[in-house]
Structures are given as structure tokens and as C-alpha cells.
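As a warm-up, study this chain.
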Amino acid sequence: MKNNITINHVSIKLHSTFFSFTDQFEKLAGKIDLTSLGNIKNNPLEVESIIKNSSGFQDLMIFMKADHGALFYLDGESKKAFQYLIGNPLTAFSMTRHDLRAALYAPLRVLVYENQDGETFFEYDLPSDLFGQFGVEAVSEIGLSLDEKLFKLVEKADGHDIVSL
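Now compare it with the structure written out below.
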């Protein structure tokens, strides 16, 4: 079975420089040590506590950071581009308990990069579209809340008001 869906892609031109933004973004967002999740079968309450204590601004946390710009060294160039996986395992569970397919998009994937003109951008696919495609009200509502949480995190990390979604 194949379903066609519409996904809105968000591209935000930031006021901050690349490293100024990414430094602030990483400070505001929590960071989870993925190895700590490995003990969830033996001690779920302890792992839940670790997750709660790892949450940053808007209850979000970074799962992974990849320096995608480093790949350009293959062409002898240097580019600034970080890809992040960001979300919250408890939020993911609150969706997947209603529809396991939501795990396909949790955590969220975002990209911060500097273009050839030195401008910094933050890009992602709108969570409410990703999660809303399943037609499960509880999952859709969480997707909408993630739209706001991610936007607020970006705005705070940039240090400027950003034109609203």
C-alpha cells in the first residue's frame, strides 16, 4: 500500500552565525547518553528518571549530532553543516503507544547549515505533518506540540523573534 502525503518543509534564516547558533542550540537542548537507555528492561523507572533529567528547553534533547559538512573535505572544501536527531524518548513513547508507526519519525531530524553567502539556516520537516499522516488524534496532537516546541527552541537559540510558522 502506498499513501501520498504532503509534508511542509520549514527553512528558517537565522540572525546568528553558524557556530553562535549551534553552540546556543546545544546548550539549550538536553543531551541523552544513548547507552543509558539500554537498561530500560531491568530498571525502567531509573531510565525514565535519567530521561527526565536529560531534558533541556521545551523538554527536547539531542540524540545525535553529525558533522555533515565534514564530508566536503572529500572535494577539498570546508562546509558548515550539522545534522541533529532531536526529541524526547518519553514523547516518542507517548505517540508510539497509540501508533507504532510514529517511531519512523521520532526523534526528529533537523539541519543547521551555512550557505555560500555566509547565512545560517535551520531546516526541518514539520512534525505535525510527519506524525499527522497516521490519522491518530493523540499522535497528531503531539505532532502539533512538537511544531511549537521546536520553533521555540530555535527562536531562543537564535536570540531573536522569528516570523511565526
